[in-house]
Amino acid sequence: MSEQPAFTPALFRFLRDLRKNNDRDWFLAHKESYERDVKEPALAFIAAFAGPLRKIAPHLVADPRSLFRIHRDVRFSNDKRPYKTEVGIQFRHSGAEDVHAPCFYLHLAPGDVFAGAGVWKPGGAALAELRDAIASSPGVWRRATAGRGFAERWALSGESLQRVPRGYDADHPCADDLKRKSFLANTGFSERDACSPDFPERLADAWSASAPLMRFLTRALDLPW
Known about the structure:
By secondary structure, this protein is α+β, with helices and mostly antiparallel strands. The protein is 44% helix and 15% strand. The chain has a six-stranded antiparallel sheet.
């Protein structure tokens, strides 16, 4: 893979400062820094990663919409801070374009850099389809999530129900996975990793290793992988 644009420490410095000054006046006064150090590098990364992404997962999409907005939705939240203090990049499946689609996700925050792969909080029919796929094919699910190539790099994460949901066997061999509200895996990086010139290549390698999970999830949702 050819060398891709890397993030810089300036991105993390801006986010640290924003944590301390999360108000509109400060942000507007430092908007030029946000554009230069955060937004433009993130968009450049997305554009440059489109080619490698097509080789890893041809049905995931890299475009400017992959970058989450910096503004928080505070309408229904007691936390009225107006800005997010992390950069979120999501490469979604072309066949299901909302945030609950199968995706790759990159999270950049001071002291908290990680990549994700999977489906975040699916609802309704999609959630049932994923649970049904696990319930009917526990061996395939276990090979996808516990195989050496996957398990060496990735760990399943996210919230779970207290009990196995109604309609599923409480003694099922994958009972803990049937409780999941999301079907996600994470792998961690450091700020130094994110600022390294070889970060895009390392990220591509990690996401390639997530293929068993992504293949299971997309097939369960009748989507191509």
